[in-house]
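Weekly modeling sync, notes
Attendees: S.R. (lead), two postdocs, one rotation student

Agenda item 3: backlog of single-chain predictions. S.R. asked that every request posted to the team notebook include the full sequence so nobody has to chase files. The rotation student volunteered to paste the first one in as an example of the format we agreed on. Action items at the bottom.

Example entry:
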Amino acid sequence: MPTGIIESLDHEARGVTRLEGRTVFVEGALPGELVEYASYRRKPGYEVARAVQVLQASVDRVAPRCPHFGVCGGCSMQHLDPAAQVAAKQRLLEDNLWHIGRIRAEELYAPIHGQAWGYRYRARLSVRFVAKKGGVLVGFHERKSSYVADMRQCAILPPHLSALLLPLRELIGGLSIRERLPQIEVAVGERITALVLRVLEPPTPADAERLREFADRHRVVFYQQPQGPATAWRFHPLAGEQLSYVLPDFAVEHPFSPTEFTQVNHAINRVLVRRALTLLAPQRGERIADMFCGLGNFSLPIARSGAYVVGVEGSADLVRRAAANAAANDLTALTEYRVANLFEITPQSLAAHGHFDRMLIDPPREGAAELVKSLSANGPQRIVYVSCSPATLARDAAILVTQKDYRLRGAGVINMFPQTSHVESIALFEHQRAG
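Predicted structure, as returned to the notebook:
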Protein backbone atom coordinates (compact mmCIF):
# COMPACT_ATOMS: atom_id res chain seq x y z
CA MET A 1 0.00 0.00 0.00
CA PRO A 2 1.53 3.40 -0.99
CA THR A 3 2.49 6.13 1.44
CA GLY A 4 2.87 9.84 0.86
CA ILE A 5 3.60 13.15 2.58
CA ILE A 6 0.66 15.53 2.30
CA GLU A 7 1.59 18.89 0.80
CA SER A 8 -1.66 20.85 1.09
CA LEU A 9 -5.45 20.67 1.10
CA ASP A 10 -7.59 21.02 -2.00
CA HIS A 11 -10.96 22.81 -2.27
CA GLU A 12 -12.75 19.74 -0.88
CA ALA A 13 -10.39 19.51 2.16
CA ARG A 14 -8.63 16.44 0.74
CA GLY A 15 -4.91 16.06 1.31
CA VAL A 16 -2.71 16.43 -1.78
CA THR A 17 0.36 14.26 -2.40
CA ARG A 18 2.29 13.03 -5.45
CA LEU A 19 3.06 9.54 -6.71
CA GLU A 20 5.23 9.04 -9.77
CA GLY A 21 4.20 12.38 -11.24
CA ARG A 22 0.51 11.88 -10.54
CA THR A 23 -1.50 13.98 -8.09
CA VAL A 24 -3.24 11.95 -5.40
CA PHE A 25 -6.13 13.43 -3.41
CA VAL A 26 -6.32 11.67 -0.05
CA GLU A 27 -9.50 11.99 2.01
CA GLY A 28 -8.90 12.30 5.74
CA ALA A 29 -5.25 13.42 5.44
CA LEU A 30 -3.82 16.76 6.58
CA PRO A 31 -0.84 18.87 5.43
CA GLY A 32 2.51 17.68 6.78
CA GLU A 33 1.26 14.18 7.55
CA LEU A 34 2.80 10.92 6.37
CA VAL A 35 -0.09 8.64 5.50
CA GLU A 36 -0.72 5.23 4.08
CA TYR A 37 -3.57 5.38 1.60
CA ALA A 38 -5.70 3.27 -0.69
CA SER A 39 -6.86 4.61 -4.06
CA TYR A 40 -10.43 4.01 -5.13
CA ARG A 41 -10.57 6.09 -8.31
CA ARG A 42 -7.88 6.45 -10.96
CA LYS A 43 -7.94 8.92 -13.82
CA PRO A 44 -5.24 9.69 -16.41
CA GLY A 45 -3.76 12.57 -14.41
CA TYR A 46 -4.79 11.93 -10.82
CA GLU A 47 -6.08 9.50 -8.22
CA VAL A 48 -8.58 9.79 -5.38
CA ALA A 49 -7.80 7.85 -2.22
CA ARG A 50 -8.70 7.36 1.42
CA ALA A 51 -6.23 7.55 4.27
CA VAL A 52 -5.85 4.07 5.75
CA GLN A 53 -3.35 4.92 8.47
CA VAL A 54 -1.73 8.16 9.66
CA LEU A 55 1.92 7.28 10.22
CA GLN A 56 2.98 10.76 11.32
CA ALA A 57 0.16 13.05 12.44
CA SER A 58 -0.03 16.79 12.01
CA VAL A 59 0.19 18.92 15.15
CA ASP A 60 -3.08 20.48 13.93
CA ARG A 61 -4.98 17.18 13.94
CA VAL A 62 -7.76 17.11 16.56
CA ALA A 63 -10.42 14.64 17.59
CA PRO A 64 -13.69 15.38 15.74
CA ARG A 65 -16.39 16.61 18.10
CA CYS A 66 -19.27 14.95 16.27
CA PRO A 67 -19.73 11.15 16.44
CA HIS A 68 -21.17 11.24 12.91
CA PHE A 69 -18.09 12.84 11.34
CA GLY A 70 -16.83 10.82 8.39
CA VAL A 71 -20.31 9.48 7.61
CA CYS A 72 -22.39 12.64 7.54
CA GLY A 73 -21.64 14.91 4.59
CA GLY A 74 -22.31 18.12 6.50
CA CYS A 75 -18.69 18.60 7.61
CA SER A 76 -15.30 17.73 6.13
CA MET A 77 -12.75 19.43 8.43
CA GLN A 78 -13.61 18.50 12.02
CA HIS A 79 -10.28 16.66 12.29
CA LEU A 80 -8.39 19.94 11.74
CA ASP A 81 -7.92 22.59 14.45
CA PRO A 82 -10.27 25.56 13.74
CA ALA A 83 -7.40 28.06 13.52
CA ALA A 84 -5.63 25.81 11.02
CA GLN A 85 -8.85 25.55 9.00
CA VAL A 86 -8.84 29.32 8.56
CA ALA A 87 -5.18 29.33 7.56
CA ALA A 88 -5.79 26.57 5.00
CA LYS A 89 -8.66 28.52 3.47
CA GLN A 90 -6.51 31.64 3.24
CA ARG A 91 -3.83 29.65 1.39
CA LEU A 92 -6.49 28.26 -0.95
CA LEU A 93 -7.65 31.79 -1.76
CA GLU A 94 -4.07 32.93 -2.46
CA ASP A 95 -3.43 29.86 -4.62
CA ASN A 96 -6.56 30.47 -6.69
CA LEU A 97 -5.74 34.13 -7.21
CA TRP A 98 -2.30 33.19 -8.49
CA HIS A 99 -2.89 29.95 -10.40
CA ILE A 100 -6.20 31.00 -11.99
CA GLY A 101 -5.94 34.79 -12.12
CA ARG A 102 -2.12 35.17 -12.18
CA ILE A 103 -2.45 38.00 -9.68
CA ARG A 104 -1.62 38.62 -6.04
CA ALA A 105 -3.36 40.91 -3.58
CA GLU A 106 -1.33 43.90 -2.43
CA GLU A 107 -2.50 43.18 1.12
CA LEU A 108 -3.85 40.06 2.83
CA TYR A 109 -6.64 41.00 5.20
CA ALA A 110 -6.97 39.39 8.61
CA PRO A 111 -9.42 36.48 8.23
CA ILE A 112 -12.96 36.94 9.51
CA HIS A 113 -13.79 34.06 11.84
CA GLY A 114 -15.72 33.33 15.01
CA GLN A 115 -17.45 30.50 16.82
CA ALA A 116 -16.56 27.14 15.31
CA TRP A 117 -19.70 25.32 16.56
CA GLY A 118 -23.43 25.95 16.77
CA TYR A 119 -23.32 28.63 14.09
CA ARG A 120 -25.58 27.25 11.37
CA TYR A 121 -28.84 29.20 11.49
CA ARG A 122 -29.96 27.97 8.06
CA ALA A 123 -30.04 24.31 7.02
CA ARG A 124 -31.85 21.96 4.68
CA LEU A 125 -32.46 18.61 6.36
CA SER A 126 -33.47 15.56 4.39
CA VAL A 127 -36.17 13.21 5.66
CA ARG A 128 -36.38 9.54 4.76
CA PHE A 129 -38.47 6.68 6.09
CA VAL A 130 -36.14 3.65 6.32
CA ALA A 131 -37.82 0.62 7.84
CA LYS A 132 -34.56 -1.30 8.42
CA LYS A 133 -33.20 1.69 10.36
CA GLY A 134 -36.21 1.59 12.66
CA GLY A 135 -38.19 4.47 11.18
CA VAL A 136 -37.63 8.02 10.00
CA LEU A 137 -34.20 9.63 9.58
CA VAL A 138 -33.78 13.41 9.69
CA GLY A 139 -30.43 14.97 8.84
CA PHE A 140 -27.85 15.75 6.19
CA HIS A 141 -26.94 13.31 3.43
CA GLU A 142 -24.12 10.87 3.97
CA ARG A 143 -20.86 11.84 2.27
CA LYS A 144 -21.13 11.46 -1.51
CA SER A 145 -24.41 9.59 -1.15
CA SER A 146 -28.14 10.11 -1.50
CA TYR A 147 -28.70 8.24 1.78
CA VAL A 148 -29.66 10.27 4.84
CA ALA A 149 -27.18 10.01 7.70
CA ASP A 150 -28.46 8.42 10.90
CA MET A 151 -27.93 11.62 12.91
CA ARG A 152 -28.84 11.97 16.56
CA GLN A 153 -27.08 15.27 17.13
CA CYS A 154 -25.29 17.96 15.13
CA ALA A 155 -22.53 20.17 16.54
CA ILE A 156 -22.75 22.86 13.85
CA LEU A 157 -26.46 23.48 14.41
CA PRO A 158 -27.47 25.70 17.34
CA PRO A 159 -27.98 23.45 20.40
CA HIS A 160 -31.77 23.88 20.43
CA LEU A 161 -31.94 22.65 16.81
CA SER A 162 -29.59 19.75 17.44
CA ALA A 163 -31.85 18.72 20.31
CA LEU A 164 -34.83 18.59 17.92
CA LEU A 165 -33.40 15.93 15.59
CA LEU A 166 -34.68 12.93 17.53
CA PRO A 167 -38.06 14.50 18.44
CA LEU A 168 -38.56 15.33 14.75
CA ARG A 169 -37.85 11.74 13.81
CA GLU A 170 -40.50 10.59 16.26
CA LEU A 171 -43.00 13.23 15.14
CA ILE A 172 -42.70 12.48 11.41
CA GLY A 173 -42.68 8.74 12.03
CA GLY A 174 -46.15 9.13 13.52
CA LEU A 175 -47.61 11.06 10.58
CA SER A 176 -49.66 9.43 7.84
CA ILE A 177 -47.60 11.39 5.27
CA ARG A 178 -44.22 10.27 6.63
CA GLU A 179 -43.21 8.99 3.18
CA ARG A 180 -44.48 12.16 1.49
CA LEU A 181 -42.38 14.62 3.49
CA PRO A 182 -38.85 14.57 2.01
CA GLN A 183 -37.33 17.72 3.48
CA ILE A 184 -37.33 20.20 6.36
CA GLU A 185 -35.82 23.63 5.82
CA VAL A 186 -34.68 25.33 9.01
CA ALA A 187 -34.39 29.08 9.56
CA VAL A 188 -33.50 30.67 12.90
CA GLY A 189 -34.29 34.34 13.41
CA GLU A 190 -33.80 36.77 16.26
CA ARG A 191 -36.99 35.71 18.02
CA ILE A 192 -38.33 32.54 16.39
CA THR A 193 -37.22 29.28 14.80
CA ALA A 194 -39.08 28.24 11.64
CA LEU A 195 -39.31 24.71 10.24
CA VAL A 196 -40.58 24.46 6.66
CA LEU A 197 -42.07 21.06 5.89
CA ARG A 198 -41.88 20.10 2.21
CA VAL A 199 -45.18 18.23 1.90
CA LEU A 200 -46.00 16.30 -1.26
CA GLU A 201 -49.56 15.84 -0.02
CA PRO A 202 -51.51 17.69 2.67
CA PRO A 203 -51.39 16.37 6.23
CA THR A 204 -54.57 14.79 7.57
CA PRO A 205 -56.48 16.46 10.42
CA ALA A 206 -54.79 14.05 12.84
CA ASP A 207 -51.38 14.92 11.35
CA ALA A 208 -52.14 18.63 11.66
CA GLU A 209 -53.00 18.24 15.32
CA ARG A 210 -49.72 16.43 15.98
CA LEU A 211 -47.82 19.23 14.25
CA ARG A 212 -49.57 21.91 16.28
CA GLU A 213 -48.83 20.10 19.54
CA PHE A 214 -45.15 19.72 18.58
CA ALA A 215 -44.83 23.40 17.63
CA ASP A 216 -46.34 24.52 20.92
CA ARG A 217 -44.24 22.13 23.01
CA HIS A 218 -40.92 22.95 21.33
CA ARG A 219 -41.66 26.64 20.63
CA VAL A 220 -41.11 26.48 16.88
CA VAL A 221 -43.15 27.77 13.94
CA PHE A 222 -44.18 25.27 11.28
CA TYR A 223 -44.57 26.23 7.65
CA GLN A 224 -45.86 23.97 4.88
CA GLN A 225 -44.40 24.07 1.38
CA PRO A 226 -46.49 22.10 -1.15
CA GLN A 227 -44.45 23.06 -4.25
CA GLY A 228 -41.68 25.62 -4.91
CA PRO A 229 -40.19 27.91 -2.25
CA ALA A 230 -42.71 30.67 -3.00
CA THR A 231 -45.58 28.38 -1.94
CA ALA A 232 -44.41 28.11 1.68
CA TRP A 233 -47.12 29.30 4.09
CA ARG A 234 -47.23 29.68 7.84
CA PHE A 235 -49.17 26.77 9.35
CA HIS A 236 -48.83 27.12 13.14
CA PRO A 237 -48.91 29.32 15.06
CA LEU A 238 -50.53 31.64 12.54
CA ALA A 239 -49.90 34.77 14.58
CA GLY A 240 -46.80 35.91 16.42
CA GLU A 241 -43.25 37.06 15.81
CA GLN A 242 -41.78 37.01 12.32
CA LEU A 243 -38.35 35.89 11.15
CA SER A 244 -35.69 38.59 11.03
CA TYR A 245 -32.01 39.23 11.66
CA VAL A 246 -30.36 42.42 12.84
CA LEU A 247 -27.21 44.35 11.99
CA PRO A 248 -26.82 46.37 15.20
CA ASP A 249 -23.83 48.39 13.94
CA PHE A 250 -26.13 49.99 11.37
CA ALA A 251 -29.45 49.94 13.27
CA VAL A 252 -30.93 47.71 10.56
CA GLU A 253 -33.33 44.78 10.92
CA HIS A 254 -34.06 42.51 7.96
CA PRO A 255 -37.33 40.58 8.02
CA PHE A 256 -37.25 37.49 5.78
CA SER A 257 -39.31 34.46 4.90
CA PRO A 258 -37.89 31.03 5.76
CA THR A 259 -37.25 30.09 2.11
CA GLU A 260 -35.53 33.35 1.13
CA PHE A 261 -31.73 33.41 0.96
CA THR A 262 -29.92 34.75 4.03
CA GLN A 263 -26.45 33.98 5.36
CA VAL A 264 -26.30 30.86 7.52
CA ASN A 265 -23.95 32.40 10.09
CA HIS A 266 -25.50 35.53 11.59
CA ALA A 267 -22.53 36.42 13.80
CA ILE A 268 -20.02 36.26 10.95
CA ASN A 269 -22.42 38.10 8.65
CA ARG A 270 -22.36 41.06 11.05
CA VAL A 271 -18.57 41.19 10.91
CA LEU A 272 -18.60 40.71 7.13
CA VAL A 273 -20.96 43.64 6.58
CA ARG A 274 -18.84 45.82 8.87
CA ARG A 275 -15.68 44.87 6.93
CA ALA A 276 -17.38 45.42 3.56
CA LEU A 277 -18.59 48.88 4.54
CA THR A 278 -15.16 49.83 5.88
CA LEU A 279 -13.54 48.84 2.57
CA LEU A 280 -16.24 50.39 0.41
CA ALA A 281 -16.11 53.65 2.45
CA PRO A 282 -19.39 55.08 1.11
CA GLN A 283 -19.75 58.84 1.31
CA ARG A 284 -22.88 60.88 1.81
CA GLY A 285 -24.32 61.92 -1.54
CA GLU A 286 -22.54 59.24 -3.59
CA ARG A 287 -24.42 56.86 -5.91
CA ILE A 288 -23.51 53.26 -5.11
CA ALA A 289 -24.48 49.96 -6.75
CA ASP A 290 -25.25 46.81 -4.77
CA MET A 291 -25.09 44.06 -7.39
CA PHE A 292 -26.79 40.73 -6.54
CA CYS A 293 -28.35 42.67 -3.66
CA GLY A 294 -30.67 39.94 -2.37
CA LEU A 295 -32.94 41.27 0.37
CA GLY A 296 -30.65 44.22 1.13
CA ASN A 297 -27.99 42.71 3.39
CA PHE A 298 -25.44 45.29 2.23
CA SER A 299 -27.56 47.99 0.60
CA LEU A 300 -29.41 49.03 3.76
CA PRO A 301 -26.18 49.51 5.78
CA ILE A 302 -24.72 51.47 2.83
CA ALA A 303 -27.81 53.68 2.79
CA ARG A 304 -27.34 54.34 6.52
CA SER A 305 -24.13 56.15 5.56
CA GLY A 306 -26.15 58.70 3.59
CA ALA A 307 -25.19 57.38 0.15
CA TYR A 308 -27.87 56.60 -2.45
CA VAL A 309 -27.98 52.87 -3.24
CA VAL A 310 -29.27 51.11 -6.35
CA GLY A 311 -29.76 47.42 -5.63
CA VAL A 312 -29.91 45.04 -8.60
CA GLU A 313 -31.05 41.44 -8.31
CA GLY A 314 -32.37 38.77 -10.67
CA SER A 315 -35.20 37.62 -8.39
CA ALA A 316 -38.31 39.81 -8.43
CA ASP A 317 -39.40 38.31 -5.10
CA LEU A 318 -36.12 39.32 -3.43
CA VAL A 319 -36.33 42.81 -4.94
CA ARG A 320 -39.80 43.22 -3.44
CA ARG A 321 -38.47 42.01 -0.09
CA ALA A 322 -35.51 44.41 -0.26
CA ALA A 323 -37.81 47.36 -0.99
CA ALA A 324 -40.08 46.36 1.90
CA ASN A 325 -37.07 46.07 4.21
CA ALA A 326 -35.89 49.53 3.15
CA ALA A 327 -39.32 50.91 4.02
CA ALA A 328 -39.34 49.08 7.38
CA ASN A 329 -35.99 50.69 8.21
CA ASP A 330 -36.96 54.20 7.01
CA LEU A 331 -34.47 54.05 4.12
CA THR A 332 -36.76 54.28 1.11
CA ALA A 333 -35.50 57.76 0.20
CA LEU A 334 -31.94 56.47 -0.15
CA THR A 335 -32.61 53.16 -1.90
CA GLU A 336 -33.88 51.92 -5.23
CA TYR A 337 -34.20 48.29 -6.32
CA ARG A 338 -34.28 46.91 -9.84
CA VAL A 339 -34.77 43.45 -11.37
CA ALA A 340 -32.10 42.44 -13.90
CA ASN A 341 -30.32 39.25 -14.93
CA LEU A 342 -26.72 40.12 -14.10
CA PHE A 343 -25.45 36.96 -15.79
CA GLU A 344 -26.59 38.37 -19.14
CA ILE A 345 -25.70 42.02 -18.57
CA THR A 346 -23.98 43.96 -21.36
CA PRO A 347 -22.05 47.24 -21.39
CA GLN A 348 -25.17 48.90 -22.81
CA SER A 349 -27.59 47.52 -20.20
CA LEU A 350 -25.15 48.31 -17.37
CA ALA A 351 -24.74 51.87 -18.66
CA ALA A 352 -28.53 52.23 -18.57
CA HIS A 353 -28.36 52.02 -14.76
CA GLY A 354 -26.29 55.21 -14.70
CA HIS A 355 -22.89 56.07 -13.27
CA PHE A 356 -21.85 54.62 -9.91
CA ASP A 357 -19.15 56.06 -7.66
CA ARG A 358 -18.63 52.72 -5.90
CA MET A 359 -19.93 49.19 -6.30
CA LEU A 360 -20.45 46.15 -4.09
CA ILE A 361 -20.72 42.76 -5.81
CA ASP A 362 -21.98 39.67 -3.95
CA PRO A 363 -22.68 36.99 -6.57
CA PRO A 364 -23.49 33.28 -6.21
CA ARG A 365 -20.85 30.66 -6.99
CA GLU A 366 -21.00 31.40 -10.72
CA GLY A 367 -19.35 34.74 -10.07
CA ALA A 368 -19.85 37.99 -11.96
CA ALA A 369 -17.84 37.65 -15.18
CA GLU A 370 -20.34 39.38 -17.48
CA LEU A 371 -20.80 42.21 -15.01
CA VAL A 372 -17.11 43.00 -14.64
CA LYS A 373 -16.59 42.66 -18.41
CA SER A 374 -19.31 45.28 -18.89
CA LEU A 375 -17.67 47.97 -16.75
CA SER A 376 -16.69 51.07 -18.71
CA ALA A 377 -13.49 53.12 -18.45
CA ASN A 378 -15.47 55.46 -16.22
CA GLY A 379 -16.57 52.65 -13.92
CA PRO A 380 -16.76 52.89 -10.13
CA GLN A 381 -13.55 54.03 -8.47
CA ARG A 382 -13.82 51.32 -5.82
CA ILE A 383 -15.33 47.81 -5.92
CA VAL A 384 -15.81 45.47 -2.97
CA TYR A 385 -16.35 41.89 -4.15
CA VAL A 386 -17.79 39.34 -1.70
CA SER A 387 -17.32 35.82 -3.04
CA CYS A 388 -18.40 32.29 -2.16
CA SER A 389 -16.00 30.73 -4.70
CA PRO A 390 -12.26 31.50 -4.75
CA ALA A 391 -12.04 30.17 -8.30
CA THR A 392 -14.63 32.53 -9.80
CA LEU A 393 -13.28 35.42 -7.72
CA ALA A 394 -9.83 34.77 -9.20
CA ARG A 395 -11.25 34.65 -12.72
CA ASP A 396 -13.17 37.91 -12.26
CA ALA A 397 -10.23 39.57 -10.51
CA ALA A 398 -8.06 38.84 -13.54
CA ILE A 399 -10.60 40.60 -15.77
CA LEU A 400 -10.69 43.64 -13.50
CA VAL A 401 -6.90 43.89 -13.24
CA THR A 402 -5.81 43.03 -16.79
CA GLN A 403 -8.72 44.46 -18.80
CA LYS A 404 -10.36 47.14 -16.67
CA ASP A 405 -7.37 48.90 -15.10
CA TYR A 406 -8.13 48.06 -11.46
CA ARG A 407 -5.67 47.16 -8.70
CA LEU A 408 -6.37 44.31 -6.30
CA ARG A 409 -5.71 46.27 -3.14
CA GLY A 410 -6.48 43.46 -0.72
CA ALA A 411 -8.23 40.13 -0.14
CA GLY A 412 -9.00 37.81 2.76
CA VAL A 413 -11.18 34.89 3.76
CA ILE A 414 -14.43 34.77 5.68
CA ASN A 415 -14.95 31.54 7.61
CA MET A 416 -18.73 31.55 7.20
CA PHE A 417 -18.88 27.72 7.37
CA PRO A 418 -16.47 26.36 10.02
CA GLN A 419 -15.75 22.60 9.88
CA THR A 420 -16.46 22.58 6.12
CA SER A 421 -14.27 23.21 3.10
CA HIS A 422 -16.49 26.06 1.91
CA VAL A 423 -14.47 29.26 1.41
CA GLU A 424 -15.96 32.74 1.31
CA SER A 425 -13.78 35.77 0.74
CA ILE A 426 -13.77 39.53 0.31
CA ALA A 427 -11.62 41.62 -2.01
CA LEU A 428 -11.11 45.32 -2.66
CA PHE A 429 -10.43 46.69 -6.15
CA GLU A 430 -9.50 50.29 -6.81
CA HIS A 431 -9.29 51.92 -10.21
CA GLN A 432 -5.84 53.11 -11.23
CA ARG A 433 -7.17 56.64 -11.72
CA ALA A 434 -7.96 56.68 -7.97
CA GLY A 435 -4.26 56.33 -7.17
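Discussion: group reviewed the output briefly. The first strand starts at residue 3 and ends at 5.
Action items: rotation student to repeat for the remaining queue; S.R. to check formatting next week.
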